[in-house]
Amino acid sequence: MVFWEGYLSDEVMGTFAPIVIYWLYAGIYQLLPPLDQYRLHTRKEEEEKNLVPLPTVIKGVLLQQLVQATVAQALFLLTSKPSSSGVTVQPSLLVQLVQIFVAMLVMDSWQYFVHRYMHINKFLYRTVHSQHHRLVVPYAIGALYNHPLEGLLLDTFGGAISFLVSGMTAQTGVFFFCFAVIKTVDDHCGLWLPGNIFHLLFQNNTAYHDIHHQLQGFKYNYSQPFFPFWDILLGTHMPYNLIRRSEGGFEARAVKD
C-alpha cells in the first residue's frame, strides 16, 4: 500500500508527482543560504557567464513539464492493465527493484546517445541543445531548462522508453521518475555539499556534469543522469579533481592525459 492510495490514482501520481518534486527539491536549493564554501563556481561567475535570466529559465522548465505531463498521461492510459477487480497487481519488491535498475540503464543509454549526437551535429547543437548550455554555470532550477524539442526527445521520450522497456507499473513509475528528477536536479545544483548521498554513491554527479558544461567543445561526460559507463566505454569520460579555492568553495578540474 502507498500513501496516496484511495486519494489519487497511480497514473495521476506518476504524471504530477515528478513535477511537484522538481520544484520542491530545486526550490530547497534555491532558498538555501549562500553556502559559498560549497559552491563549484562563485556567484560572480554565475552572474557573468550565464546568458539567460531566471524568469526565462522557469518558463522554459514549465513548458517542458507541460509536454511531459501530456505524454505521461497518454502513456499510462495506453499501458494500464488493471485486473478483473479493477486494481493493478503490483509485482514483488525485488521485481520492482530490478525494473527500476533496468529503467536506469535504458534511460542512461538513450540520453547518452541523443545528448552526444546533439553535440556532434552542428545544426542540432546550434538550434536546439545550445539553449541548455546558455546556463554555463548550472543551478538546480535550470536542470530541465532545454529547447522544447530537446525536452521532448531527450527527457520525455527517454522516460517513456525506460518505462516501457522495464515493464514497470504506473505505481513503480512514480518512484522511478521522482528519483530520476531528484538526481537530475542534484547534478545541476552547483554545490558540493558534505554528506550528499549522490556524491557518495554515484560517480556521475554534480562535479562530473559540471566538467561537461565547462570544458571547451563539451566533448566529455555526456552521461546522465545515473552511470558513466557509456562515457568510459566510448572514450568520452573525463575524470576530475576537486580543488579548494582560496576565496572559498571548490573547483572541479579536469584530469587530462
From TrEMBL:
<feature type="transmembrane region" description="Helical">
    <location>
        <begin position="160"/>
        <end position="182"/>
    </location>
</feature>
<keyword id="KW-1133">Transmembrane helix</keyword>
<dbReference type="InterPro" id="IPR006694">
    <property type="entry name" value="Fatty_acid_hydroxylase"/>
</dbReference>
<feature type="transmembrane region" description="Helical">
    <location>
        <begin position="135"/>
        <end position="154"/>
    </location>
</feature>
<dbReference type="Pfam" id="PF04116">
    <property type="entry name" value="FA_hydroxylase"/>
</dbReference>
<dbReference type="GO" id="GO:0005506">
    <property type="term" value="F:iron ion binding"/>
</dbReference>
<comment type="similarity">
    <text>Belongs to the sterol desaturase family.</text>
</comment>
<feature type="domain" description="Fatty acid hydroxylase">
    <location>
        <begin position="101"/>
        <end position="236"/>
    </location>
</feature>
<feature type="transmembrane region" description="Helical">
    <location>
        <begin position="93"/>
        <end position="114"/>
    </location>
</feature>
<dbReference type="GO" id="GO:0008610">
    <property type="term" value="P:lipid biosynthetic process"/>
</dbReference>
<dbReference type="GO" id="GO:0016491">
    <property type="term" value="F:oxidoreductase activity"/>
</dbReference>
<dbReference type="GO" id="GO:0016020">
    <property type="term" value="C:membrane"/>
</dbReference>
<keyword id="KW-0812">Transmembrane</keyword>
<feature type="transmembrane region" description="Helical">
    <location>
        <begin position="12"/>
        <end position="32"/>
    </location>
</feature>
<dbReference type="InterPro" id="IPR050307">
    <property type="entry name" value="Sterol_Desaturase_Related"/>
</dbReference>
<protein>
    <recommendedName>
        <fullName>Fatty acid hydroxylase domain-containing protein</fullName>
    </recommendedName>
</protein>
<keyword id="KW-0472">Membrane</keyword>
